[in-house]
């Protein structure tokens, strides 16, 4: 696409749904719903603006390399990615949840997580988990999983999990309980640093429109 066009990286599901009102405030309307389409590139009501639909964990990578000019990614994903090459101008306060440690109900976490003890942790977020337990002086064996973390303590794969909790319903349905809060998570706008300069006139009004919605909702 030409220099006067914009590519926006988004993931399907929660983030896409919660991004639609922000896009609308910036006058951008997707031509199709990604949930109903298999297309990975979706046009908009602007000839020069398109959306690319990628996995949530891949959004920072597309933006970092300039394959997308900007995107929306959870803070969880950004912490694990490291944020290289990304400008993060705005907390959009969408897809809000908490990164928590959770265990089977009845597991004596207080006793098992004394400084110097050793725990097996299943998680999609190895860096966040390692840093959290290092700060507590607890040794951990991290088992990297890509989904359904809640299963791990139930079948003896791990003592605990580090995962996102929103309503708490998933933990409850699986007889797990949250025992420690690590960090609050929400989605951020991430902009390619070079694109912010070369396409400033296109990107800046969109950032301003997004900021207006965030401010109005927080008021
Ligand atoms: P809940 O049952 O509402 O607490 O949601 C928990 C499940 O949804 C877990 O499997 C989480 O990994 C996932 N989840 C919750 N919030 C988010 C979020 N903001 N982004 C991605 N996954 C999430």
From TrEMBL:
Protein's cellular compartments: Cytoplasm
GO biological process: L-histidine biosynthetic process
PROSITE patterns, per the entry: ATP_P_PHORIBOSYLTR
Ranges of residues in domain ATP phosphoribosyltransferase catalytic: 55-210
Keywords noted in UniProt: Amino-acid biosynthesis, ATP-binding, Cytoplasm, Glycosyltransferase, Histidine biosynthesis, Nucleotide-binding, Transferase
GO cellular component, one term: cytoplasm
Pathway(s) served: Amino-acid biosynthesis; L-histidine biosynthesis; L-histidine from 5-phospho-alpha-D-ribose 1-diphosphate: step 1/9
TM stretches of this protein: none
Record keyword ATP-binding present: yes
GO molecular function, one term: ATP phosphoribosyltransferase activity
Free-text comment about domains: Lacks the C-terminal regulatory region which is replaced by HisZ.
Family label: Belongs to the ATP phosphoribosyltransferase family. Short subfamily.
Function: Catalyzes the condensation of ATP and 5-phosphoribose 1-diphosphate to form N'-(5'-phosphoribosyl)-ATP (PR-ATP). Has a crucial role in the pathway because the rate of histidine biosynthesis seems to be controlled primarily by regulation of HisG enzymatic activity.
Descriptive protein name: ATP phosphoribosyltransferase
Organism: Bergeriella denitrificans
